[in-house]
Amino acid sequence: MLPMRTDAMTYSTLMVHLDAGHPNMATLSLAAKLAERYRAKVIGVAVCQPMEIGTSDGYFTGELVTLERDIVDQELKRAETEFRDCTEIQPFILEWRSIPTMGCIAEIVASEARCADLIITSAGSGPQRNPLTHADTGELIIRAGRPVLVVPDGPAPAIFETVIIAWSNTRECRRAITDALPILEQADRVLIVEVTPKLVEARSQINDVVAWLSRHMVSADTIVGDSYGDSVGTLALIAKDHCADLIVAGAYGHNRLREWAFGGVTRDLLLRNNRCALLSH
Q1: How far is CA 165 from CA 9, 50, 121, 210, in A?
Q2: Angle formed by the axes of helices 264-271 and 137-144, to 10°?
Q3: N or C: which end of the chain has fewer CB within 10 A?
Q4: 131 and 206, same structural domain?
Q5: Continuous segment of H or E residues that includes residue 13
Q6: What are the tens digits of pLDDT across the range 148-194?
Q7: Around Cβ 63, how many Cβ atoms within 10 Å?
């Protein structure tokens, strides 16, 4: 691992989005490790919507409204307790924000990120996630204007010893690699991977990226391979073969009928990835 420079980029404030209706141990554990490494402040945020309660006559009673408000408050308090239990003995600065809302959770979390360098959230795939307490991860990435570190469920991940950059010469990817510099500077190994049928052009461009990273004290190896029509599968196989614990990638998406449609690699990293991913849009 290269020694940290005194002028190296860093994350001074991390924001952790907690799902108020789901355990957050993996997300909080990783946030604590990163906060200790970068001496960063940690802001915990949980957002919760009330459940829609229907009645036969279409009217809500005061008792129903009060009951639902109490449920929201309990969920937010539970998330705050988990946040403080996991972080209270740590040496970094903590701040907690609870937000009951009727609005879009992803939009609110993105707005709160105005004071953060990096958002950390769970992958949030599968039917076990409650849309009343968990931000849609893809929408959060698109709205945030900050890099989003997506953490899969399961055991607490490592502190990013081997990092793969899923390279393509796009705005989103160029932004992602810049956003990831504090992590890349501390990784034991960085591997730039481009999967494309344009092998000659890709090798020339990827050498420029290697040279740029070297000026930030990051040494990187490269792999340029033909996708044979399956860039998602090829990237996943390379990540597995090299025991990568983080993939850095640009997030590609566009709004279609009020829903975000994502490219193949982005969609796979959001829905089926078993390792952490840092994504920027």
Answers
A1: 18, 39, 20, 11
A2: 120
A3: N
A4: no
A5: strand 13-17
A6: 999 988 877 778 999 999 998 999 999 999 999 999 999 999 999 99
A7: 8
CB 232 within 8 A of CB 204: no
Summarize the confidence of residues 78-83 as an average pLDDT: 96
Instruction: HSE, CB side, 13 Å, CA atoms: give it for residue 71.
Output: 14
Residue 261 has pLDDT above 50, yes or no: no
Instruction: Provide the 10 A C-beta neighbour count for residue 153.
Output: 18
In this prediction, residue 115 carries a pLDDT of: 96
User: What confidence tens digit (pLDDT) does each residue in 14-32 have?
Assistant: 999 999 988 999 999 999 9
Taking every pair of C-alpha atoms in the chain, what is the biggest distance, in angstroms?
A: 68
Domain boundary among 151, 171, 204: 151
Give the tokens for residue 192. Answer: 């730039």
Q: Are residues 137 and 95 in the same domain?
A: yes
